[in-house]
Q: What sequence folds into this?
């Protein structure tokens, strides 16, 4: 028993070492990636379901690794969060988003509200608002140009502190969206304590619409309750016309997903903006 325990222990540490080495490698590579501009931003349109007009865009980060090619955020954001690099990475995203909006405006391209994903660490970072203010000012933007997306589970952590931080952002004029709604076991009644403008219903509740009766009930309930509380609703991951029509019937406000557009690199996004200017 002792022997097998020992063997088991060795196996376990071996695996741990490997994971740590991989993580350390990614951490140092990611650190360099931020400095060397290996990161880029893509933008995914959000459309009004009532009239198909463009009402927002979500900015998503990509990593162009010199050896591995493109790496998606699902792989490196968790590492960045764990190591604290997320604060530098998040600042990079905010800075380059603001820069890009200003560039488009200089070319007389109207841009809709741009949503930036915030991680938990960033949200609790004491100088987040100061950083944002500085960037907006430097690029002659206003708070209403930007929205922050925070996951439901992030907001659940510490209600009092969350309320304080959200109120600070809302007071400054930043619009706030709850990301991945429906996955974090919070209730809408709980969220009502916070100054939230938009709920984004998680893709997993959208993907089996309209056939799945359970999901249909959940989604229609979320939409109705959110509206009663004065919030707008965005459906994430809309991929079919059937889903679009179903959500429009339920009076869901906005939709985002491959049906309308994939996340677009800067140039493609400029073309998209040209073709979707409000009149
Ligand atoms: P998210 O915020 O839930 O972003 C939506 C994800 O769904 C994106 O994946 C997007 O490409 C994908 N998506 C959009 N429409 C569809 C669709 O119709 N079907 C399917 N199957 N997928 C769709 P992506 O870009 O890989 O990002 C993954 C996650 O990484 C994001 O999830 C977000 O949590 C995080 N992330 C991305 N950029 C940032 C960032 O700048 N900062 C932070 N903190 N997190 C980020
Ligand atoms: Ca998001
Ligand atoms: Ca989401
Ligand atoms: Ca997600």
A:
């Amino acid at each position: 028993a002792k022997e097998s325990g020992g063997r088991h222990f060795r196996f376990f540490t071996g695996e741990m070492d490997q994971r740590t080495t991989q993580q350390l490698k990614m951490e140092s590579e990611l650190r360099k990636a931020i400095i060397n501009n290996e990161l880029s931003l893509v933008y995914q349109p959000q459309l009004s379901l009532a009239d198909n007009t463009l009402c927002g865009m979500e900015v998503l980060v990509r990593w162009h690794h010199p050896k591995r090619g493109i790496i998606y955020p699902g792989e490196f954001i968790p590492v960045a969060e764990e190591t604290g690099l997320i604060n530098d990475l998040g600042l990079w995203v905010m800075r380059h988003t603001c820069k890009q909006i200003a560039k488009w405006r200089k070319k007389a391209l109207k841009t809709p509200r741009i949503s930036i994903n915030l991680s938990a660490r960033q949200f609790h970072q004491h100088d987040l608002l100061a950083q944002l203010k500085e960037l907006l000012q430097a690029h002659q933007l206003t708070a209403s140009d930007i929205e922050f997306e925070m996951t439901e589970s992030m907001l659940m952590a510490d209600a009092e502190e969350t309320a304080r931080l959200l109120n600070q952002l809302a007071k400054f004029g930043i619009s706030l969206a709850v990301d991945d709604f429906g996955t974090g076991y919070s209730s809408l009644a709980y969220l009502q304590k916070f100054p939230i403008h938009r709920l984004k219903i998680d893709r997993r509740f959208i993907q089996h619409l309209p056939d799945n009766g359970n999901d249909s009930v959940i989604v229609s309930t979320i939409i109705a309750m959110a509206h009663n509380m004065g919030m707008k609703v965005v459906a994430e991951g809309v991929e079919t016309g059937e889903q679009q029509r179903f959500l429009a019937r339920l009076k869901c406000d906005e939709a985002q997903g491959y049906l309308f557009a994939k996340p677009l690199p800067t140039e493609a996004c400029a073309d998209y903006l040209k073709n979707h200017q409000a009149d």
About this structure: Residues 170 and 183 are 24 Å apart (CA to CA). The radius of gyration is 21 Å. The first strand starts at residue 39 and ends at 48. The pocket of calcium ion (ligand 3) is lined by residues 179-180, 200, 236 (CB under 6 Å).
